[in-house]
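4.2 Preliminary Data

To establish feasibility before requesting continued support, the project team ran the inverse folding procedure on a target of 100 residues. The structure was first converted into the token representation described in Section 3, and no sequence information of any kind was made available to the design step. The complete token record follows.
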């Protein structure tokens, strides 16, 4: 079933290799589930809400890339923009600080 949907042999791979790659990608990206809510909580965002939003954004992004685009790329919220918003705009914004 996976072979027919993703055309694995046409891409020079097989199910076993793709499962191992998926596990490696998950382990590589899992840190964002801890770091992203921690960064944004320091700026006043609710920790639990950011945790769930991070999961939803990553799942939706990965499903779109895998099922619609048929491209094995993992997507999740990025640390750079989160840190910019949390610290530059909110925490250390001075007179121009905004609230979340």
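Position-by-position output of the design step:
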């Amino acid at each position: 079933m996976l072979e027919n949907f993703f055309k694995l042999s046409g891409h020079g791979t097989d199910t076993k290799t793709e499962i191992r790659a998926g596990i490696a990608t998950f382990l590589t990206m899992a840190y964002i589930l801890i770091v992203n809510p921690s960064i944004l909580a320091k700026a006043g965002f609710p920790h639990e809400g950011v945790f769930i939003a991070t999961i939803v954004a990553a799942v939706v992004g990965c499903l779109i890339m895998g099922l619609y685009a048929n491209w094995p790329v993992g997507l999740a919220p990025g640390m750079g923009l989160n840190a910019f918003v949390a610290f530059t705009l909110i925490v250390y914004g001075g007179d121009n600080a905004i609230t979340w």
